[in-house]
């Protein structure tokens, strides 16, 4: 059974392949603050174009950006991601306090205020020197993991040495049983909900799991051995479908699809099949109903609200498919508790001897190995 270097498997439940691993062979690292990192988004119409320019680094003409801006303006120029992450931070701080770990906590975004630099400045001003980092992405890839590390490392390099904090990112949690349980419940809920379009159907729905598309080469470079991004999402899709089957007493066919491809015109191949391709294929095969679960997103990015909630829904309508979109897990109390325990685990606290993870890979290591998820800045 494969494990990551530095870990030893101590327990395995053969029924569900649920594992715990022993404490990492590094010394405990007391922490005194928490930085929650996310993507960010505009909160009023005037912020939409500046936000998109920041995301694309000035590489995309405004004429093309305006097409994407219309998606935000459809929702009055406000992405819900910051508001949802503020709630997540509030609940995470409370969950940590309940566990005896009261400390400053701040939200920092890669692409819109509060930016990572602003959040770190706040924490340093409060005396933080050892900061746990919780990213709202639990999968291995450059944009979902390595880019967050590069972001706070660049911020740290600009801080005088005497005040420069140390950062301790919590491990990836895609295979944590609590994360899988949360998504399992969301899918069960969606399956049982009335279809959004068309006549009510008793047909067993086809499950479509989605995540953000990446350039093919970037996906190939994810993880240490490569291809971790796709493999991890397929693992989650399979475990969530199994959970739904266990609750509802019937099996479900499923497909992993990729959405929200950006960087059009770059000439690079991107991950497929797209959500559009999948919907067309399912309709051609005579499928009557689909339940779409955006497992690659924790909160409601615009990619969930527009790309799935508007565009994919409309395509399903045109194809005659009944379409139900599962809710993202957001600030589900179980998910918040999981993140709190990962922070304590990282600090060498009470949870450090119990690192739950499902599947053959076991828990991700505290420190990502050298060469993991190569930089995607050139893409």
Question: How is this fold's topology laid out?
Answer:
Blueprint: E1 9-13, E2 18-21, E3 33-38, H1 45-56, H2 62-74, H3 81-98, E4 105-109, H4 116-125, E5 130-135, H5 142-157, E6 166-169, H6 177-192, E7 206-212, H7 216-220, H8 228-248, E8 254-259, H9 275-284, E9 289-293, H10 302-319, E10 322-325, H11 333-347, E11 357-358
Parallel strand pairs: 3-4, 3-5, 5-6, 7-8, 7-9, 9-10
Antiparallel strand pairs: 1-2, 2-11
Helix pairs in contact: 1-2, 3-11, 6-8, 9-10
Task: Please provide a written account of the structure.
By secondary structure, this protein is an alpha/beta fold. The chain folds into 2 domains: about 10-40 and about 80-170 and about 330-360, Rossmann fold (3-Layer(aba) Sandwich), CATH 3.40.50.1400; about 175-325, Rossmann fold. Helices cover about 40% and strands about 15% of the residues. The protein is built from 11 helices and 11 strands. It has helices spanning about 45-55, 60-75, 80-100, 115-125, 140-155, 175-190, 215-220, 230-250, 275-285, 300-320, 335-345; strands at about 10-15, 20, 35-40, 105-110, 130-135, 165-170, 205-210, 255-260, 290-295, 320-325, 355-360. A 4-stranded parallel β-sheet has the order 4-3-5-6, with helices on both faces. It has a 4-stranded parallel β-sheet with strand order 8-7-9-10, sandwiched between helices. Helix 10 links the parallel strand 9 (about 290-295) and strand 10. Helix 1 crosses helix 2 and helix 9 (about 275-285) packs parallel to helix 10.
Please summarize the sheet with the most strands. Answer: 4 strands, parallel
If you consult CATH, what is the topology of the largest domain? Rossmann fold
> Would you identify the CATH architecture of the largest domain?
3-Layer(aba) Sandwich
In CATH, what is the class of the largest domain?
Alpha Beta
Compute the number of structural domains.
2
Our count of helices gives 11
Strand order of the largest sheet: 4-3-5-6
Q: What's the overall average pLDDT, rounded?
A: 88
Order of helices and strands: EEEHHHEHEHEHEHHEHEHEHE
Q: Roughly how many Å apart are the termini?
A: 35 Å
What is the helix content? Answer: 40-55%
Globular, elongated, flat, extended or rod-shaped: what is the shape?
globular
Strand content: 5-15%
Structural class by helix and strand composition: alpha/beta
Give a count of the beta strands, DSSP E runs of length 2 or more.
11
Point out poorly predicted stretches: 1-16, 18-26
């Amino acid at each position: 059974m494969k494990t990551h270097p530095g870990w030893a498997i101590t327990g395995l439940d053969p029924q569900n392949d649920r594992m715990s691993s022993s404490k990492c062979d590094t010394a405990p690292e007391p922490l005194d603050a928490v930085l929650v990192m996310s993507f960010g988004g505009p909160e009023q119409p005037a912020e939409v174009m500046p936000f998109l320019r920041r995301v694309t680094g000035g590489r995309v003409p405004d004429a093309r950006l305006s097409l994407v801006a219309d998606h935000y303006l459809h929702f009055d120029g406000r992405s819900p991601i910051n508001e949802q992450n503020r709630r997540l931070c509030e609940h995470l701080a409370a969950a940590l306090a309940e566990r005896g770990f009261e400390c400053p906590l701040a939200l920092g975004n890669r692409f819109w205020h509060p930016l990572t630099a602003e959040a770190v400045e706040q924490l340093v001003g409060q005396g933080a020197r050892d900061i746990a980092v919780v990213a709202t992405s639990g999968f291995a890839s450059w944009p979902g993991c390595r880019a967050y590390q590069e972001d706070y490392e660049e911020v740290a390099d600009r801080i005088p040495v005497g005040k420069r904090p140390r950062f301790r990112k919590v491990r990836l949690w895609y295979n944590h049983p609590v994360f899988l349980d949360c998504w399992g419940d969301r899918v069960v809920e969606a399956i049982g909900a009335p279809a959004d379009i068309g006549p009510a159907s008793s047909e067993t729905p086809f499950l479509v799991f989605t995540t953000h598309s990446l350039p093919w080469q970037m996906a190939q470079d994810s993880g240490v051995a490569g291809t971790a991004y796709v493999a991890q999402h397929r693992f989650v899709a399979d475990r969530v479908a199994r959970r739904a089957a266990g609750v509802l007493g019937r099996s479900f066919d499923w497909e992993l699809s990729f959405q929200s491809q950006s960087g059009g015109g770059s000439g690079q191949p991107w991950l497929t099949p797209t959500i559009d391709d999948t919907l067309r294929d399912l309709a051609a095969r005579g499928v009557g109903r689909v339940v779409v679960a955006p497992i690659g997103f924790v909160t409601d990015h615009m990619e969930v609200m527009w790309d799935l909630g508007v565009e994919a829904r409309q395509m399903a309508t045109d194809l005659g498919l009944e379409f139900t979109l599962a809710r993202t897990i957001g600030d589900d109390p179980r998910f918040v508790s999981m993140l709190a325990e990962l922070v304590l685990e990282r600090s060498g606290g009470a949870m450090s001897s119990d690192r739950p993870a499902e599947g053959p890979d076991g828990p991700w290591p505290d420190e990502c190995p050298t060469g993991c998820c190569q930089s995607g800045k050139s893409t």
